[in-house]
Write a structure and sequence with these properties.
Strand content: 15-25%
Cofactor: FAD
Radius of gyration: 23 Å
Keywords: FAD, Flavoprotein, Oxidoreductase
Shape: globular
Protein name: Glycolate oxidase subunit GlcD
Largest sheet: 7 strands, antiparallel
Enzyme class: oxidoreductase
CATH class of one domain: Alpha Beta
Structural class: alpha+beta
EC number: 1.1.99.14
């Protein structure tokens, strides 16, 4: 099934008069930066999921909260859809524009408003880069923990929208675990504060509800994040394995022993070779898989944990375990992992990055399933993932210039996500649903659950104008998806509800 917006499956879009809308915006907001010429709109036709592109009707780049408020009220009055965009690094098509809607780019909201070392928090605008927060807090011995691979470029507003994680989320949590409060605007221009400066607040946890809502409930205008003290000591162990199954079992043994690493990452041979060729991190290119295990804290505890983890890795079948000899080597080990995506991009003209999550015990089984799909469809797959929390990032290599390869990559990606659901996992861990996984939502949730999602959406956005067609499938789309699952009378997911 095509994942681009389909008026039959996703609901009709309004027919917006571009000239009239442009005139209304200029009258209401004469100082608002508006992009309207087709050649200038081109850079905004996709986010990080570049295989799918749609030209927006208009792009606006506000600099003040009042501009966003007026814009939203105008769009609400005129029934114009609004898609929010941060840095455009998202990998699920969450910021894919609509041909009959406005793309609201929050990149100019890029100021760090306050670093409070005593309270250990930072107040920032949504366009601030993730890494910039840690850089600003560093003189105080503090940092912001979530560190997605795109942290040098991604925005904190986008992190809130997708509930982003990173290589250290096993110990330090996702975005939702590192927020104190956010300020948002609804589609009607109402200003709300979700959360508080305290560690907890009474009432429903609307902050958690909003985090990960993919721009469907409101627009973030300010974020207050928690800052943590930098660990006194951090050590990284690099373990190499003759097969990925042993590496998967090693992950389970570490967690079973009650050790929670700061990071626990796994890469297969294709990803290892790509990263080593690109970064020269010192990876063993003949290994079938490697594990990177970071342990942090005070010196005595870290030393003891390193010895315990090394013993567990060797007992699980590691052929070699190396401890980073200094901070420079530790950073090289992590640079290879954090640059794995662009490194794999050098192996093929295109790749399709998936984001499923599984129970850790199912890791060997799912890796075998991915290998089988790779062989069956003739597409190479590089595996890079947060092994500690079971968040997989299979990278499916293809060439969009070859007829049918993109379609085959889509099928493989969909089947990988459905395999994740079948073993008790989820179709996304941190990239979000967006448009990319809209069909697989039908495999994970039933009619009542999807209807409840729509009811929550309607409570914030009754007209459905904020990022329509993303994150939550319509029942019509799920009915079509369910019908497609019948193959020669067999249902791969017999429990999947057919609406």
């Amino acid at each position: 099934m095509n994942i681009l917006y389909d008026s039959v499956l996703d609901g009709p879009l309004p027919n917006v008069d571009k000239a009239a809308l442009l005139a209304a915006l200029r009258a209401a907001l004469p100082d608002l930066a508006i992009v309207h010429r087709s050649e200038d709109l081109k850079p905004y036709e996709c986010d990080g999921l570049s295989a799918y592109r749609t030209m927006p009707l208009l792009v606006v780049l506000p600099e003040r909260m009042e501009q966003v408020q007026t814009l939203l009220r105008l769009c609400h009055q005129r029934g114009v859809p609004v898609v929010a965009r941060g840095a455009g690094t998202g990998l699920s098509g969450g910021a894919l524009p609509l041909s009959q809607g406005i793309l609201l780019v929050m990149a100019r909201f890029n100021r760090i408003l306050e670093i409070n070392p005593q309270g250990r928090y930072a107040r920032v605008q949504p366009g601030v880069r993730n890494l910039a927060i840690s850089q600003a807090a560093a003189p105080h011995g503090l940092y912001y923990a979530p560190d997605p691979s795109s942290q040098i470029a991604c925005s904190i507003g986008g992190n809130v929208a997708e509930n982003a994680g990173g290589v250290h989320c096993l110990k330090y949590g996702l975005t939702v675990h590192n927020l104190l409060k956010i300020e948002i605007l609804t589609i009607e221009g109402e200003q709300l504060v979700l959360g508080s400066d305290a560690l907890d607040s009474p009432g429903f946890d609307l902050l958690a509800l909003f985090t990960g809502s993919e721009g469907m409930l409101g627009i973030v205008t300010e974020v207050t994040v928690k800052l943590l003290p930098k660990p006194q000591v951090a050590r990284v162990l690099l373990a190499s394995f003759e097969n990925a199954q042993d590496a998967g079992r090693a992950v389970a043994e570490i967690i079973k022993a009650g050790i929670i690493p700061g990071g626990l990452e796994m890469m297969d041979n294709l990803a290892i070779r790509a990263a080593e060729d690109f970064i020269h991190a010192g990876y063993p290119v003949d290994a079938a898989a490697i594990l990177l295990c970071e342990l942090d804290g005070v010196e005595a505890d870290v030393q003891e944990d390193c010895e315990r983890v090394e013993a567990l890795l060797m007992a699980a079948g590691a052929r070699e375990v190396r401890l980073a000899c200094d901070e420079a080597e530790r950073m090289r080990f992590w640079a290879g992992r954090k640059n794995a995506f662009p490194a794999v991009g050098r192996l093929s003209p295109d790749y399709y990055c998936m984001d499923g999550t599984i129970p850790r015990r199912e890791l060997p089984r799912v890796l075998q399933g991915i290998q089988a799909l790779s062989g069956a469809f003739g597409l190479r797959v590089a595996n890079v993932f947060h092994a500690g929390d079971g968040n997989l990032h299979p990278l499916i290599l293809f060439d969009a210039n070859l007829p049918g390869e993109l379609e085959r990559a889509e099928v493989v990606g969909g089947k990988i996500l459905e395999l994740c659901v079948a073993v008790g996992g989820s179709i996304t861990g941190e990239h979000g649903v967006g448009r990319e996984k809209i069909n697989q939502m039908c495999a994970q949730f039933n009619r009542d659950e999807i209807s409840l999602f729509h009811a929550i959406k309607a409570a914030f956005d009754p007209l459905g104008l904020l990022n329509p067609g993303k994150n939550i499938p319509t029942l019509q789309r799920c009915a079509e998806f369910g019908a497609l699952h019948v193959h020669h009378g067999q249902l791969p997911f017999p429990d999947l509800e057919r609406f």
